[in-house]
Amino acid sequence: xxxxxxxxxxxxxxxxxxxxxxxxxxxxxxxxxxxxxxxxxxxxxxxxxxxxxxxxxxxxxxxxxxxxxxxxxxxxxxxxxxxxxxxxxxxxxxxxxxxxxxxxxxxxxxxxxxxxxxxxxxxxxxxxxxxxxxxxxxxxxxxxxxxxxxxxxxxxxxxxxxxxxxxxxxxxxxxxxxxxxxxxxxxxxxxxxxxxxxxxxxxxxxxxxxxxxxxxxxxxxxxxxxxxxxxxxxxxxxxxxxxxxxxxxxxxxxxxxxxxxxxxxxxxxxxxxxxxxxxxxxxxxxxxxxxxxxxxxxxxxxxxxxxxxxxxxxxxxxxxxxxxxxxxxxxxxxxxxxxxxxxxxxxxxxxxxxxxxxxxxxxxxxxxxxxxxxxxxxxxxxxxxxxxxxxxxxxxxxxxxxxxxxxxxxxxxxxxxxxxxxxxxxxxxxxxxxxxxxxxxxxxxxxxxxxxxxxxxxxxxxxxxxxxxxxxxxxxxxxxxxxxxxxxxxxxxxxxxxxxxxxxxxxxxxxxxxxxxxxxxxxxxxxxxxxxxxxxxxxxxxxxxxxxxxxxxxxxxxxxxxxxxxxxxxxxxxxxxxxxxxxxxxxxxxxxxxxxxxxxxxxxxxxxxxxxxxxxxxxxxxxxxxxxxxxxxxxxxxxxxxxxxxxxxxxxxxxxxxxxxxxxxxxxxxxxxxxxxxxxxxxxxxxxxxxx
Length: 692
Hints:
The protein is an alpha+beta fold. It is built from 26 helices and 21 strands. β19 and β20 (about 660-665) form a beta hairpin. The radius of gyration is 34 Å and the shape is elongated.
C-alpha cells in the first residue's frame, strides 16, 4: 500500500527470469497525461490487459477500464516516496496478479485496493459502481487507521484481513501481490523500517503465501527478505551463483538426455531447467557444504495427464540410476496447500545427480499460482433458481484449507492484539499438517505437525476439552501429552465432572493457538489453579488378603511348591509353563508371558504344569477409571456380587483425573471371569478392564 516507495532499480539480480517487468516511470507519465478516450483501454493498463487475455481470452476488459479510470482520478496528485505517481503501485500489483492468471474480479479489486484507504472514494461508491463482490475484497485489504487502533493497528488489520480471507481467498491474493511490489520497491526506506517490514513479511506473509500455494510470490518474497535481514549470507550466495554462471553446467546435457529418453518412449513432454532461487541455493549450501554444478537448478518435466507423470518416472528410474531417498509422491498425497508433483533425483553415467520434478501443466499452474489459479470459486451455478436470501448468505470458499478454518476459530478467542499477533506467528510457523481420525466415526481433524492429544481435544470439543483426562490413540490408552502422527485414530476421554479444568502443564504440551488460548483463559479465570500437581506422588493404597499359593495349578515335580506368577496371573484354561526358581518353588506363567522367553533365554528348562479338576482360580485384573467419590467402594461391591474374593488390591494416585486399580482375585470358577470383567466395566466411571 502507501508505506513503501518505488525504487525500480533496487536489487535487479532478484528479478524472476522470464517475467516482464513494469516500467513504472513510463506508466507514471502515461497516468499524468490523463484519461484515455472512452472507446479504448488506457495505454497505462494495456500490459495488464495483455497478461490477462493470455489466461482468459474471452475476458470483458471494460470493467478494468472503469476501475483504472476511478483509481487514476482518485490517486491523481499523490506521489510515492520515489517520485512516481501513486497509480503506478496498483498498476504493478494488478500486473503481478494478471501474470498469475487471476480472473477479472480480482484484477478490478486490485486496481482499487488503495482507493478507500488513501482517497475520498468510499465503499458505497465501489459497491454501486462495481458490485458487492469487488467491494468486499477492497474492504478486506483496507488497513485500519492508527488513529483509532494505535499500536494494535497492524495486528488488527491482519485479523480483519484473515477473517475476510475466510470468506474470499482473493483478499489475501491481493495482499500478497501488494507486499511483493512494496518489497521490490523498498530501497529508499530507512534501514530500520526495511528490517521491520521484512520481519513481518518473513513471519506472516511468506507462510501465508506458502499455505495458499502461491509459490511464484513466496520464492521472490523469500529472496527479498533474505537480502534485507541477512545481507552477508545473501552476498555470499549471490557470489556463488555468479561464479557458477561461468562454470560448466551439467543440467543442459542432462535435460537433453531426458528429452531423448522420453521421445524414444513415446511420451510427449516438455523438459525445462528451473534455476533455484537465492534462498534455495543457500539452504542447499548449508545442507551439503560444497555445491555441485547441478545443485543450482532442477529439471522440470511437464506432461498432459496424471498417468504420464508415472510413465515419466518409470523411464527416468529405468534409464538412469535413481536416488531412492529423494523420491516423493505429492500426486497421490498432495501437500495441504494444493501442491502436486513427483519429486525424484537420478544420476547419469558420469555420476552427476540431477533433481527432477514431474507434473502436469495444470499442476504446474496451481504450483506457481496456488489459489490464484483456481479462477472464481464463488460463482453461483447458473440455474436461475438462487433466491435473494441465499445470495446474501456468507460465502463458503470451497478452497478454504483446514489451517485457515482453525485460524478463524481461535482468533475469535484471542483476547487482545498481542495475543493474536504472537499466536498467529506460532500458527504460521508450523510448516506441515497431519490428519487424524475420530474413533466415533465423526470425520477427521486437521492439525499441525507435532500436535498432541491436547490439541485434538480442543479442536474437537472446544472448551469442553477442559475436562479431558486421557485419550486412546489407535486403540491404546495414552496420555494427553502424547504427540500424534498422520493417520492416527483418536478417542478422547472426558471426565464426568463438568467443573474440572486443565492442568498448568498443559500449556507446555499444546501446539495450536486454539488450545493455548483456551487453557490460558481458564487458568487466568481460576487463579486457585487447575488440577492437582502430581509433583509429590502419594503412596499407592494397598489392601492385601491372607490367601495365596498356586491355586489349582499342579507342577509335574513332586513336593515342589507352586506359585502363580503375579506378572500374568494365569487361570484355567490358559496354556501355561512352569520354571523352578530360587528355593525350589515352581512359578507358573501364561505361555505368552514375556517372562517365559526370558527364562528360556537363560537356559531354564520348563516344568510341565496342568490344572486340577477344581474350577476355582486366581487372576489379576487392571481397571482404568475416572476419579470420582466412592469409586473404590462401587468396584469392590461389583466384584463381591460376582462371588470373587479380593486377595490384594492396589489403587494408584490419580493422574489427570485418571485412576488405575489393580486387583488380584480368587474366583470360584474360571468361567465367571468374562462376566466379572463386564460387571466391573459397568461401574460408572470405569472405561477399561483388562487382564494384567
